[in-house]
Amino acid sequence: MIKKVVFFRRGAYLSGMELRDTHDWYLDKDPLDMVSPAIIEFIRARAGHRILDLGAGLGGYSKRLADLGFAVTAGDINPAYAEIARGLGVEALTLTAGRPLPFPDSAFDTVIMVEVLEHLEQPGPLLAEAHRVTTSNLVVTTPNSTMRETLLNTAALLFEHELDQDHKNRFTVDSLQELLTGYFRQAEVIQAEFMDAPMCRLLLPPKLMKKAERLINQGKMGHQLSFRLYAEALV
């Protein structure tokens, strides 16, 4: 019987943290501090010039991509978040949940959804709209729940994203692949942001931890524990 759950990310114990609602949790955060360079690079390598950032939140990703030369339009259903994004100089619209996107067909080369799909009880309609407004592709990231049950049942550990109480879906490699190919011609889903070394620090005594980290860094111990899923779906 599991008596205690420890939330963990990037080597930090987060035991006892309160659940959070992402509708307002980010309001006092710095938009640019929330941006992952790895996600920016994944998008940059796959996006066309005209990008729609759906569920853009505070606009940090839109701002970074605009600075790289992309023409970015942001949209979010949270008016407070859209206002913060506009304060960064981002073209940000407040969208209405459940309504068609206010853009014509094929208005963008690429649609991106960074940590969005897990918040939607029924993500299908938004994916259909994303397909309608893009000429080329959709780029997605979500929390990775592929190893969730193994982590919980063997070590009483969960990733930090489990603290988000407004998550409606947990995606694995297979379930995200199935969802995306229901709306796009083809999709590739990969596991990313591996946390094997931080996990060693949490669970192993110092001598074994150092040996395990050395093996991981030398590529002699395969990556197993991924924090996020990255995906690209083609029209």
Secondary structure layout:
Elements: E1 6-9, E2 12-13, H1 37-44, E3 50-54, H2 60-67, E4 71-76, H3 79-87, E5 91-94, E6 108-114, H4 124-133, E7 134-143, H5 148-155, E8 157-159, H6 173-181, E9 186-194, H7 196-203, H8 206-217, E10 226-234
Parallel strand pairs: 1-8, 3-4, 3-6, 4-5, 6-7
Antiparallel strand pairs: 1-2, 7-10, 9-10
Can you put this structure into words, describing what you see?
The protein is an alpha/beta fold and 235 residues long. It has one domain (20-145, 161-194, 226-234): Rossmann fold (3-Layer(aba) Sandwich). The chain has eight helices and ten strands. The chain has helices at 37-44, 60-67, 79-87, 124-133, 148-155, 173-181, 196-203, 206-217, and strands at residues 6-9, 12-13, 50-54, 71-76, 91-94, 108-114, 134-143, 157-159, 186-194, 226-234. The strands form two sheets. It has a seven-stranded mixed sheet, with helices on both faces. Helix 3 links the parallel strand 4 (71-76) and strand 5. Helix 7 (196-203) packs antiparallel against helix 8. The longest helix is centred in the last third of the chain and has 12 residues, at 206-217. It starts with 5 loop residues before the first strand and ends with a strand. Mean pLDDT is 83; it is low at 1-7 and 10-14.
